[in-house]
Structures are given as C-alpha cells and as structure tokens.
Target: Serine/threonine protein kinase
Amino acid sequence: FGEVYRGTLEDNTTVAVKTSIEVNEARKDDFTNEVIIQSQMMHNNIIKLLGCCLEVDVPMLVYEFAAKGNLQDILHGDANIPLPLGLRLNIAIESAEGLRYMHSSTSRTIRHGDVKPANILLTDKFIPKISYFGTSKLLTVDKDFTMFVVGSMGYIDPVFHKTGHLTQKSDIYSYGI
Model:
C-alpha cells in the first residue's frame, strides 16, 4: 500500500488515486492482482475501480471517491462523526452484502483476506464500500490454500493463521471482529 490522493477527472468526478510506495515486482504483482480481482466485481458495497496505470514507474489505481473515509477512523479516530445505531446497523448489513457478493456472485470465488474497519470506506451518504483488494485471492472451488498468511493481526481467522486455508469463513470471522 502507498499513498492515496484525491483527484478530479475531466468531467469533475472526484476520485481516489492510490499509488505504491515501494516499486518492485512484488508490489506490481499486488497491484495487478487488485486490478484483476476488482475488474470482476460490480456491487454497490464494493469500491469501484475506475481505471489503472501499471506501466509507469509508480503504478496507480483510480477508484470512486468515498468522502467520509474509512470506518476505523470514524469509529475510533479523530473523524468525530456520530453514527446512530440505525446507521451502524445499515453499515454492518450492507458490508455483509458486499462480502456475500464476493463469496457467491462472481465468476470465481473471491476471498478478501483482510476484512477490517480500515478497509471499509463510507460515501457521503454513509454507504459502505469494501476496499483494498491487494491481499485478496481468486480461488477455484477446490482451492482455498495460500502459502503466505496475509491480513491484519487481531482480525485474522485463527484457523487461517494456523493452516493457511483462506475460506469464506475466514472473511466472515474478520467481519465479525
């Protein structure tokens, strides 16, 4: 992950532009993986990838803009935005809908691998958007194993941490935390 900048397209659409801090083959592979995965997903609760530029010194991904920032900062940071119970429930339900879509409605199963409040962005209307697919995996029905355990400590499914098997249950565990 690197820096995220706010930008404006020619039609005055506000976007988020994500760049990589490190520019090495592994980082470019993560960015390419993110493009491949996100290009397969179209859901209201998943951040929309609008474009990319991978053939430059510093790869860039262009996303729809989520004006309220991430859920972690709103709940526990300096954002100081009150969230009434009803709105919190809507955010939880809609985030779960995004996960359900990833797990069952795409041509190949997508496992996020790092579901946490910092990776749930909120629009100006508080619509949650699951984001950051750099560690996500495209898996076939018979393959749920990864050689490297990825994710954020405190949110990683203990079974995934122990076995390396990234399943739908791993994402659901992280969502529940």
Observations:
- The two ends are 23 Å apart (CA to CA).
- The mean pLDDT is 82.
- The helical segments are 25-38, 71-76, 85-104, 158-163, 168-176.
